Amino acid sequence: MIIRHRLSSRALAIYFLIGIALIGIVTYIYSNYLIQRIRTETETTSRLFAEFARGPSIDEQRLLELFYEMVIKRIDFPVILTDADGTPYSSKNVDEKDLYKAVEKLDRVQKPIPMVIRQGADSTLLGHVHWGLSPFTKSLQILPFVETVFLIAFLFLGFWGYLIYRKSIEEKIWNSLAKETAHQLATPLSSLVGWLETIKGNIDSEIYQGIHEDAMRMREVLEKFSRIGLPPRLVEKDPTDTVKKSVDYIRRRAHANIIFNEKYGRIPAVRFDDVLLGWAVENILKNGLDAIGDQPGEISIRTRKYETNGAIIEITDTGKGIKSSGKIFKPGYTTKKYGWGLGLVLTRRIIEEFHRGKLTLRETGSKGTCFEIYIPGA
Prior knowledge:
Layout: H1 2-6, H2 9-53, H3 60-72, E1 79-83, E2 88-92, H4 99-109, E3 113-119, E4 122-131, H5 135-199, H6 205-226, E5 235-237, H7 240-252, E6 258-264, E7 270-272, H8 274-292, E8 297-305, E9 311-317, H9 343-354, E10 358-365, E11 368-375
Parallel strand pairs: 6-8
Antiparallel strand pairs: 1-2, 1-4, 3-4, 5-7, 8-9, 9-11, 10-11
């Protein structure tokens, strides 16, 4: 949540600029290192060629000394010489004491080079040269792999940051829309409450009580919308009363053929926002009523303690079930004719982001749907 809300387009731009700069600097330094190594090897080869080009003026001893100084001493890769019987008699850059094992290890990677003397049609095998790759050559081999992994990681982090930034923008839009809705409805609602006080005593008390209760409920709804995007007001207590209050509110607005089965077990105190948790429970109960429709049905509410700590609120209905259960938590998805597809999205956010809990669709089908809310213990 902290990363999501604080990530901005400026942070993304800085990330990509720093990343591109680092890639450029590392590539420049390593490329210069490779160029220097190749230049040194080219210089060595050129000097040897120059000595050979001098022809008879260089004696055999001088040629051997030159070859030893410029080639043999500069070998940085492992090499082992063996005779015709396979017995090692010379080695360089080999760490292992057992040369036989070292020969086997080298031969598994590189094919040994035979040393053969030819005299006319005859040839004599003197032995083999067993060799491996130098650290420099190995680094060249793994370089493409390292560059690819680094590039993929860089692009993945950048794409991940872009998705978070995009989601944060969407959340800001929804938060602004909710707050603006609450702001626009606050004034007419206040006027409605004032008019109710004016006509109090002039209409049937039962009618007045019903209108007044709905007006107060609208005020609570506006408070909920105005608090979207703000930190929750968490209190530590038993959430049973909050659940009962939401069930009572929905029961009064359900038709007579709906039966509410309530079973409240002993649950520990948890940290929750009374208004937001009640809103989440109401959303699930309303979905249950919509799923049942005009037919007789049942809605069961059960609370119990979680295995170790925390509270479970289980809400089950006998409605027609959810056809595309994998899409129910996606914004905009709804099966209702005039629905917005935000109820379960907001409910999930209330439970999982504000309360660090979990909203789970336990089961759904032709016999009904079961949602489970988990709130961690205090």
